Amino acid sequence: MPSKPPVVRSRLDQTLDRANCDVVLIVDDVPDNLSVLHDALDESGYTVLLATHGEAALQRAEQALPDIVLLDAMMPGMDGFDVARRLKASPRTAHIPIIFMTGLTETEYLVAALESGGVDYVTKPIKPKEVLARMQVHLAGARERRQARNALDAFGYASITVRVHDGKLMWQTPLARALLMRYYASEAPHTPEAVCQWLRRNAADVAAGKLSGEPPRLSIEQGPKRLTFRLHQHIGDSEGGGDWLIIMQEVSDESVMDAIALSFKLTPREAEVLYWVVKGKINRDIGDILGSSPMTVKKHLERVFVKLGVETRTAAAGMAMARIRQLHPQFEA
Q1: Which residues does 157 contact at the CB level (< 8 Å), separation at least 6?
Q2: Which UniProt keywords apply (predicted)?
Q3: At residue 219, what are phi and psi to the nearest 5 degrees?
Q4: Counting C-beta atoms within 10 Å of the first and last residue's C-beta, which end of the chain has fewer, N or C?
Q5: Residue 180 and residue 296 in one domain
Q6: Which three-class secondary structure state does DSSP give residue 295?
Q7: Is the pLDDT of residue 155 over 70?
Q8: Torsion angle of C-alpha atoms 285, 289, 293, 298, degrees rounded to 10
C-alpha cells in the first residue's frame, strides 16, 4: 500500500521551538520524496517545513529561517541551483547550510551543486538514514556558529560578513543591523563605503603579508559613542579577496564623563565640555556637538579652569586625561 503524502501544515504562523529542535526545510516537487523525508525527520524530532517549488522555498526560508535546507536539484521552473544561489545572495539566508538531493551523479552537476552554495549532496533514491547522518554533520557546525554569533551580540559585539570584491554584506546579526542603520543609515546587502574601503585596503595588506599584527581598526564617532570595526577571520577561498568576518563594537564614553564630573566636582555640562577638550575639539566644534554657541562653551571652560586650578586648555586636558587613564585605561583620546 503506497504511503500517503504528508498533511502539509503551515508552521510559519506558529512559534518555532528552536531551543528543543532544529527546523528543516525540504524542497522537492515529488510528493513521494516529501513524504518519505517528512516522516523520517518528524520521527527524529525535527520541525519540518515543506516546499514544492522554488518560489515557495525562497518565501519559506525568508520567513522561517530554517537551520538547514534539503534541496532537490532538478525542479520545473526555478531549479535547485537557482534557489541555492538566491538563498546565498540574501543576508538573511546566506548562512543556512544547503544539502542537495540529486539523481544526477555526473561530476559537472555535483560541482554545480557546490558552486551554487551547497555544502553537501545526497543521491537519489533518497536513503533517510544517510540524509540524517549528513544533516547532523552540518547542523552541528551551523549550531556552533549561530551560538557564537548570538553570544557576540549578547556581549555587545556585533558581527557581519562582507565579500571583498564587490563589498556585498552577506549576513549580519540583529545587533549589527541596528548599528549600521544608526551610524550609516545603511541596510544589507549594501556595506557602507567607508567600511568597504577599509576592508579592501587591509585585506590586500593581509594577502600581501604586509601586516605582522592585527590590521588597523576602523572607528566612527557619534557624540560620546563610537563604533569600531576589526577584521576577525578570512572565510572561503582567496579569489577576489574572499569573505571576511568583521566584529563591530559600540563603545560609550558617558561613564568617562561621569568620572570627570565626580573627580573634579564639575556640572554635567562642564564635564562634557572638558571631555571634548580632551578629544582635541575647539570651542566651535564643541558648540556644534552640544547645540550651544562657542561663547557659551568658553564660559563653561572658564569655570572648568577655576575648578581645576589651571589656566590653559592643555593643562586642563592633561589633568583630565591623567585621571581618565586611572579609571578607564581603555579610553581612546
Answers
A1: 247, 248, 249
A2: DNA-binding, Phosphoprotein, Transcription, Transcription regulation, Two-component regulatory system
A3: -135, 135
A4: N
A5: no
A6: helix
A7: no
A8: -60
